[in-house]
Specification:
Elements lengths: L3 E4 L2 E3 L7 E8 H7 E2 L13 H10 L11 E5 L7 E2 L4 E4 L5 E5 L1 H13 L3 H8 L2 E8 L3 H13 L6 H7 L4 H12 L1 H6 L1 E2 L14 E2 H13 L6 H9 L1 H18 L15 H15 E3 L5 E2 L3 H7 L16 E4 L7 E4 L4 H12 L1
Parallel strand pairs: 4-8, 5-9, 10-11
Antiparallel strand pairs: 1-7, 2-3, 3-9, 5-8, 6-7, 12-13, 14-15
């Protein structure tokens, strides 16, 4: 047995120095080696649910591979001895097992499925697939029970086959709200839902819900507002797009700085750069958005490359396109001219190739 590595940042929960959460991606084969089910936390396993989940997993043969809602774990030890902030790397040795808070049926379904597959190539494909995991730190037994109760007492996401048939609201608004509620990464960087603007520099929220909606539109379609045809495409592919975006934001905020909305330190909090970033990734990731939204198989590699860029305000490559906002006040800061996202796109293309 070897050490397992999980990559990501540990965010504090409610500004507590004792409790934190990390979102990462782990291979199925590693998950099967590190999980532990505590019967005092989880409900009894319902084995009659496993065949249905296995059938669903077997049906996943699209661009995104095997992808299900995040598994939730509790790390039993002090992360200080196992986590490297510099490398954003958590080491999980063979003798440490992560307590399952949510996802025991998904894990057991994978376990049973793998044990029955006779085709070695197919088995390896499943074992090498990645799943999103949320790992909590600093929880005692009561905390773990409470978290299990909170997760399982809230209503599950309504099937989009029903939502898209009967909900006449803006489908992108629904998508943004659901992605935010599902993504611990988006919650960690903070999205403003109550205001249309963010007062910089004191407010360090990464973005607003309106701007995230534009970001997703640009990422998927290369434009800020969608046609009726585009909205119909989102409805038709809703579940696949939801899974893709959930994983996308998890990976994105895993390689960006911890507080990307802090404009005194980083350039990422400005709308023009966010739009340029979305357009760059659209050009790199999205294959087609006319008849059906499709993306390249190894799109995760394009996200990883973003970790190579110096996003700090001190990086001189940004300065020619910046002005001083709130000049001659105690709150002055550097900002981009809103209309210059094409200039910023050229910088990203130059830096990333």
């Amino acid at each position: 047995m070897f050490n397992i590595k999980a990559f990501g940042t540990i965010g504090l929960i409610n500004f507590s120095n004792d409790k934190g959460i990390m979102t990462s991606q782990l291979k199925v084969k590693d998950i099967l080696n590190i999980y532990r089910i505590d019967s005092t936390i989880n409900r009894d396993l319902s084995y009659n649910r496993l065949p249905q989940i296995i059938k669903y997993i077997e049906s996943l043969d699209g661009n995104i591979g095997v992808f299900l809602p995040s598994l939730v774990f509790s790390f039993p030890e002090n992360p200080h001895y196992y986590y490297s902030p510099q490398d954003q790397e958590l080491t999980i040795p063979p003798d440490i097992k992560l307590t399952v808070i949510d996802g025991q049926h998904r894990i057991k379904s994978f376990e049973k499925m793998v044990s029955t597959i006779t085709d070695n190539e197919k088995k390896q494909k499943v074992l090498e697939s990645y799943m999103t995991v949320q790992i909590y730190f600093g929880l005692d037994r009561d905390d773990e029970r409470r978290l299990f109760s909170d997760i399982n007492s809230n209503a599950r996401r309504v099937s989009m086959s029903l939502v898209t048939s009967y909900d006449t609201r803006d489908i992108m608004n629904i998508l943004v709200n659901e992605i935010f509620n599902s993504s611990s990464s988006l919650q960690a960087v903070q999205i403003e839902f109550n205001k249309s603007k963010i007062l910089r520099p004191r407010n360090t929220h990464f973005s607003t819900s309106v701007r995230i909606k534009k970001f997703i539109s640009i990422l998927l379609f290369g434009k800020r507002s969608l046609s009726n045809k585009n909205e119909a495409q989102v409805k038709k592919q809703y579940d696949d797009l939801f899974s893709f975006l959930d994983k996308f934001f998890s990976l994105l905020f895993g390689v960006l700085p911890n507080t990307p909305g802090d404009v005194l330190q980083y350039v990422l909090g400005h709308e023009s750069l966010q739009n340029a970033l979305a357009l760059h990734l659209h050009n790199k990731i999205i294959i087609d958005c006319e008849s059906e939204i499709t993306w390249i198989d190894n799109w995760e590699e394009e996200i990883e490359l973003l970790g190579l860029i110096d996003w700090s305000i001190r990086n001189t490559i940004w300065h020619p396109h910046m002005i001083i906002a709130r000049k001659n006040s105690p709150y002055e800061f550097k900002a981009f001219v809103d209309s210059r996202h094409n200039d910023l796109l050229e910088i990203l293309q130059s830096e990333l190739g």
